[in-house]
Amino acid sequence: MSHLLTILQLHRGKHRAITGKELAELLGDMNDRMIRKEIRELIAEGHPIASSTENPYGYFLAETPQEVEQYLKQLKNRLVEDAYRRRDFKKAARILSKEKQLALL
Fold it and tell me: What is the H or E stretch that residue 15 is in?
């Protein structure tokens, strides 16, 4: 069992969420990026690790169907926001491309 999972076993439920910074301090040899990568791998292995962007902030093992649903809703909202950002960026990039074409004329 990974050290990260061992720590998260003590953080079951949103009310016991632990921040990435706190995890990094406890693990010592892992930075935020490494922690996120390992969390993705642990989720893929079947561990229901969620995170909260509301107080209490941080990562936790989901314990209830409500925590699962809340986290899934949070992920869906991020997807929607990312889709809007992607659309707007493509639009902005087209404007730059047109400006470059006009400069060549």
Answer: none
